[in-house]
Fold each of these.
Amino acid sequence: MTRRFAAAILLPLALATAAHAAPPRKKPAPPPPPKPAPIGDTVRIALTTEAGVITLELDHKRAPITTENFVVYVDQKRFDGTVFYRALRLPWGDAPNGLIQGGTQNDPKRILKPIAHEPTTQTGILHKAWAISMARYDPGTATGDFSIMLGDQPALDADPKASGDNAGYAAFGRVTDGKDVVVKIFNAPVDPAKGEGGMKGQIIAAPIRIVSARRLPDPPPQP
């Protein structure tokens, strides 16, 4: 007889009966998703990377859900220690052309609940050069991975006339400073053996670490 089994049968019968009769306890409701501290129509973010600082301006007025999600990751320091891990290089258009991708890489210790999708047809924020956009699988699955454009990428905009998944991606801001840093990350060597499917050969051999992501003060009002 094992100790566990012996302990079980020696429990008082009254306790066993009461436990059997008691209704099952309901699991507590999950806490509501965290909200960022109040922000205005735009919010500025400094991504400090091993390659330098990238300054972002996020459009809270037109893309409130996506912007607030990104700001929560910033305020809770969930981007600190993550990396830019992908460089998609397109062989057409004006060089450099493509995007870089970084963020939480679906790390369960870092990601929050997925957010509702805000398509470009709703926000009007298109995938122009230097735009920042959320990575996703199906619409409504975006969490903590994002991309920065190095060239116009209209194929990433929503296209209601297209068949299949035509919702596009959710662009929500742009790079205002540190474009040279974006290009430096984009030009980092990739490993031709890494990556699966369409990402084969796009994985940066030595990913570029995001040291910190922090809000910046609002700029002074224009006279």
Amino acid sequence: MGNAKAFLSVHRQEAGYRPIHDRIHDFGEVEQTLNTRERKLQASRCMDCGVPFCHWACPLGNKPPEWNDALYRGEWEQAYQLLTSTNPFPEFTGRICPALCEKACVLNLVEHEPTTNREDEGAIAEAAFREGYVQVRVPVRNGKSVAVIGAGPAGLAAANALNQMGYQVTVFEKNEAAGGLLRYGIPNFKLNKAIIDRRMKLLEEEGIAFKYGQEIILDSSCPLPKEYDAIVVATGTPTARDLQAPGRPLKGVHFALELLAQQNRVLAGMEFGKEERITAKGKDVLVIGGGDTGSDCIGTAHRQGCHSVTQIEIMPRPVEGPEDPQNPWPNWPRTLKTTSSHEEGCTRRWNINTLEFLGENGILTGVKVQEIDWQPNPKGGRPIMVEKGQPEIIKAELVLLAMGFLKPEHPEYPENVFVCGDAKNGATLVVRAMANGIETARKVDQFLGGK
């Protein structure tokens, strides 16, 4: 390492967020950036730890010690080459990855001040685009073709890897643009969609063909395209987990992605009628589900001008960080997470079960909930939910269901069909979907006789 003792004198410094009073009035990215000098100092903190658990924890197998050292020495192009040797889209993960590598950092164990790998990664990617280090790479074709169904993180990673191996790749996407969850699930205040467009332009120049507005259903009624040597299914997890409580059909109860996808489309210039538009403006909003999607709903509701936001979760409140006794270092700690959206204002409650959606004249007015507790199951397995206290009513004109997604089921495919990403493993992190897309591309190459 260029400065193996920097961690002793340089503390962790995050770029932080734009002021709340400023950022809640627009959908611009909330995260700020450090200047070049400060960024180099943060990169210098990556110590000569001997065993880089950051590499172990990253699904992509990223090598932060190598590219942090190059960044510290001012070798930005080398840092980018090292970074992209394992990560095809660092401009995405540098913005929205939860940074498993940082939780596994030795400095997180010792000082609870891990290296700022995610921010460093994002800075390297942006410098590479700015300085022209990102070049179009058109490979020599091998005469074989592959269809990729789905242009989300896994599909794009698989398509990129296969394209660079020499296959002629065609990506079929049911939506009007590529990105999947990146475009339609993650708000612009976390990932500006111009970042996706920039990458799509590059992938097209490198020879990948994209066909939008084409939903391909792989079953007996829709035979597989015969002109491709192999097919990669990367259709994600399209079915959200529902909550079939009484009153579910009331107007005002929506899946989280209905709000998030529509808002992103509005920002892209699409228009919706008054009856179609889902908006939190002037409303009391209840978000059911305590994960990242629920957090994204909170931030979106604030920017739409909501009156209030409450988030409830049926599971217990996570332990306060930074350590998790049930899941110790270097594993990911299941500790309480406070996002930029939570900071903008939100009542958060745990151990709350939803009993009924209430309304008048078919329109939602509130939700009846019940505080519960979890007791050990004498037979083992999932704890038993027991009621605690009296039911209460939370006022709400808009409910957003953010309870995750159901793992898809697939028919038996021919041997030249490969399933990857969330379509294979169920809903997970973008970085894991990308890693599985790359792994699947290698399996396709092996199947087709590549090297």
